[in-house]
Design a protein that fits this description.
Blueprint (H helix, E strand, L loop, with lengths): L1 H31 L25 H5 L3 E5 L2 E9 L5 E5 L13 H6 L3 E5 L18 H14 L5 E7 L1 H11 L4 E9 L17 H9 L3 H15 L8 H23 L2 H15 L6 E6 L10 H8 L7 E4 L6 H4 L1 H11 L2
Parallel strand pairs: 3-4, 3-5, 5-6, 6-7, 7-8
Antiparallel strand pairs: 1-2, 2-4
Helix pairs in contact: 4-5, 5-9, 6-8, 7-8
Length: 344
């Protein structure tokens, strides 16, 4: 009997060691064999009319990206329009990229907007870095303003999602005179209503494993699929084509940017009170578009406080019931209609 138990425990131990060695091999091997070819394949922007944006997968999206260099840092961005309409700057969050807006862009362009959607530094197809000093809120905001200066756009509307709010709060408080309209999606406006996964915020075993796992084709795919299931209300939207649009950049060093974010919540803690004090001095027409089932950026209690601070009229507050964190994947047409009604 004892001999049998020893064999069972020895077998279990062997399986565990094999699993550990397999994970270590995945981390080491795949960190050296990533999808490093896609940036080379998009050295030239697709020569297509500005009205065109026919995107299916991640690679087709890359062909529409243009390049802007600021202080030797490469920023990739979309710039699509139909005619001289209101410039609208769309800012993604973490860990996404400009492809987040792909279902909305054709409708916005058809409505007459000039749509600018950058991959923020460290995200998507833009240059990557693991230097926290280059990924701070003020630095990211400065790049947004520099991009609009590069495009010679003086006044513009701005909208975004998730971590965008930190970059946008910084931007609108620095250059309020240049912002014609503000569209607030689910945002980090007040720390009490920001509910990230347990353990996130500082460098620890959990955050290190999460950041490293995103570098693995296998574990990164598991993470991306699991995140989409959690962040979508309609999980049937989580196709592999959709998921790969978020996964591929993570496999090309964007995991460093995500790791930087989930280990520096102290930046958020310090910045939010400053922005909240500045909100009262702003006079920018603002609409709030939120979705009811977001598990990370809980909005029901935050909305009255944020609406009062930003002087938002009741008719400009919209709650979308059947959507979760990635509403752009689920309610694109409805969002386009709300923006078109508000940003004239």
């Amino acid at each position: 009997m004892k001999s049998m138990k020893k064999r069972i425990f020895a077998g279990i131990g062997t399986i565990l060691w094999v699993a550990i060695l397999l994970l270590l091999w995945l981390f080491v091997y795949e960190s050296k064999h990533q999808f490093l070819d896609y940036e080379e394949s998009v050295g030239t922007t697709l020569d297509a009319p500005k009205t065109e944006y026919a995107v299916t997968d991640w690679m087709s999206h890359l062909w529409y990206l243009e390049t802007f260099n600021i202080q030797w840092q490469k920023i990739r961005y979309l710039d699509r329009w139909d005619r001289d309409g209101t410039p609208l700057l769309l800012v993604h969050g973490t860990p996404t990229n400009s492809r987040l807006w792909r279902k909305m862009i054709p409708g916005l362009v058809a409505s007459g907007y000039r749509v600018i959607a950058p991959d923020q530094f460290g995200f998507g197809a833009s240059q990557k870095s693991d230097d926290h000093a280059q990924l701070t809120i003020p630095k990211q905001s400065q790049r947004l303003v520099a991009l609009m200066d590069h495009l010679e756009i003086q006044e513009f509307a701005i909208a975004g999602h998730d971590q965008w709010s930190l970059w946008v709060w910084e931007t609108i408080t620095q250059i309020p005179e240049r912002i014609s309209h503000l569209v607030v999606f689910n945002s980090i406006g007040y720390r009490d209503w920001f509910h990230p996964p347990a353990g996130f915020g500082t460098a620890n075993i959990g955050t290190k494993f999460t950041g490293r796992a995103m570098w693995s084709k296998l574990l990164g795919r598991v993470f991306a699929y699991g995140a989409m299931i959690w962040w979508l209300q309609d999980t049937s939207q989580a196709t592999m084509t959709m998921i790969n649009g978020y996964l591929f950049p993570l496999l090309n060093n964007m995991n460093n940017t995500y790791y930087d974010f989930i280990t520096h919540f102290d930046d958020i803690q310090q910045a939010l009170p400053v922005y909240q004090q500045k909100f009262v001095d702003l006079d920018i027409p603002t609409t709030i578009i939120r979705w009811a089932h977001d598990k990370i950026l809980v909005g029901a209690d935050q909305i009255p406080t944020l609406a009062q601070a930003l002087k938002v009229q009741e008719q400009d507050i919209h709650i979308l019931d059947d959507a979760a964190h990635f509403v752009q994947e689920e309610k694109a047409e409805e969002i386009v209609e709300l923006i078109s009604e508000f940003v004239k």
